TrEMBL record:
It comes from Tetraparma gracilis. The lineage of its organism: Eukaryota, Sar, Stramenopiles, Ochrophyta, Bolidophyceae. This is tRNA uridine 5-carboxymethylaminomethyl modification enzyme C-terminal subdomain domain-containing protein. Residues 90-163 form the tRNA uridine 5-carboxymethylaminomethyl modification enzyme C-terminal subdomain domain.
Length: 184
């Protein structure tokens, strides 16, 4: 029942749309800026209840108040037992999507090689614990899958290692394409 209530509430938010100016007229400036501005009117943009709820300082109860006031049919509000979950799910969905993309990128990079000549020192990896640097130096993982198997490695350190290695690889690719001309 809880899952159904959450799904139904989010679906109502996704399917209810108003022009930005209408959200602003009914909810105030925090719902889309000053209503009546030429820029907003010219855009003719519509937003769903879900998109409006993702805005800072906008609450689910405020969005549902507007939806209820403008609905032709009797409006079903989110039940109290699902209210906080619906609000948090919508508010943080962009963060969850980004985290999912990061995880997918991490899964795809498991076989990405780690250069064998990399120096694991404080200058290159200032945020690493000394123990992590020692373990990386001792084990010399060939790829991120092997690095992930080293006990005591923090996920943040592995992500940092990934970013440092991919940035160095991108810089070296960029330098290979650069040619210098010598005046004759």
């Amino acid at each position: 029942a809880r899952e159904n209530a959450i799904f139904a509430s989010i679906e109502r938010l996704r399917t209810f749309t108003l022009f930005v100016t209408e959200w602003s007229v009914h909810g105030g400036e925090k719902f889309g800026g000053k209503h009546g501005t030429d820029k907003v009117k010219a855009s003719g943009a519509k937003k769903t209840g879900e998109q409006v709820l993702q805005m800072p300082h906008v609450s689910l109860s405020e969005v549902e108040d507007i939806m209820a006031a403008l609905s032709d049919a009797p409006f079903v509000r989110t039940p109290r037992f699902a209210f906080d979950t619906v609000e948090a799910t919508v508010k943080y969905s962009s963060y969850l999507d980004r985290q999912e993309q990061d995880m997918e990128s991490w899964r795809k990079s498991q076989n990405l090689p780690i250069p064998p000549n990399i120096v694991y020192d404080r200058a290159t990896f200032p945020s690493f614990k000394e123990e992590e640097l020692e373990k990386l130096q001792r084990h010399r993982p060939k790829n991120f899958s092997e690095a992930n198997l080293i006990g005591g490695m923090r996920p943040t350190s592995l992500v940092s290692l990934y970013h440092i290695i991919t940035k160095k690889a991108a810089r070296s690719r960029g330098q290979k394409g650069v040619t210098t001309s010598v005046p004759s």
